[in-house]
Amino acid sequence: MRAAGRFNAQLMDYIRDFVRPGITTEEIDRLVHEYTLGYGHVPAPLNYQGFPKSCCTSINEVICHGIPGPYLLKEGDIVNVDVTTIVGGWHGDQSETFLVGAVSEEARNVTQCALNALYLGIEAIRPGGRISDIGDAIVKEASRWGFSVVHEYIGHGLGRRFHQEPNIPHFPTPRSRSERIEPGTCFTIEPMINAGSRYTVMDPTDGWTVRTRDGQCSAQFEHTILMTETGPEMLTKTRRGPQKGHSFS
Ligand code: MF3
Ligand code: CO
Ligand code: CO
Fold first, then answer.
1. Domain around 203
2. For ligand 1, which residues put their CB under 6 angstroms from it?
3. Using CB atoms within 10 A as the burial measure, which of 105, 150, 171, 231 is most buried?
4. Total domains, the chain
5. The domain spanning residue 97 has which CATH number?
6. Looking at ligand 1, which residue's alpha carbon is closest to its atom 8?
7. How much is the pLDDT for 18?
8. pLDDT tens by residue, 25-37
9. Domain annotation covers residue 42
10. Within-domain flag for 111
């Protein structure tokens, strides 16, 4: 899992410089695809439950699972790129929201809130601690900004499988209040923060693209975490991406 996380982070650092105005999301997908295959690894999204591409690109009001296509990124967009690779049978999964040139204050704030929420979620957990500590920390941060937390899509355990136990909701639930994170567990934290209401709509045409119901923007960051005997270890730490405490202003 450490090797998978390390490679996935290296991939994220590779695509970073290409996410600029004028590139299409399918060009980003091709870069992800070729880079992964070039190292002999496998892009997990491709053909996963019928998903047609090697990564997800979610722009502005798209919350998650956007399908790369001919759309040209333009100044003012925010785009989440979510990459997952299979390395020797094990999965690494992470995403970042990129600001394309100068963006609106609201888009910047929702992106900042999502990054803060991810790190507050990571800091909230300890070996044997409650899963709900993550959701409590994330809801608190979203409320501070007047933003909302998506309920329908959540973090997840991963390993030989892309998605497995435990469920990691980004808000407290009765189940997350009773479940604990034992050492040895690998899972993601990937809060989706909406500028407006938390509600989602699935694109009826492609069956994948999830948008905000109110059309306001949404941002997300994701890391793969290993709970060790002493605390959480980030397996997908990038060299050049936004780190804990990063400010987008
Ligand atoms: N990478 C996403 C996650 O964080 C899942 C994408 S599933 C796909 O769990 F099929 F859309 F790729
Ligand atoms: Co994930
Ligand atoms: Co992901």
1. 2-234
2. 45, 48-49, 51, 56, 65, 82, 84, 93, 188, 190, 222
3. 150
4. 1
5. 3.90.230.10
6. 45
7. 98
8. 999 999 999 999 9
9. yes
10. yes
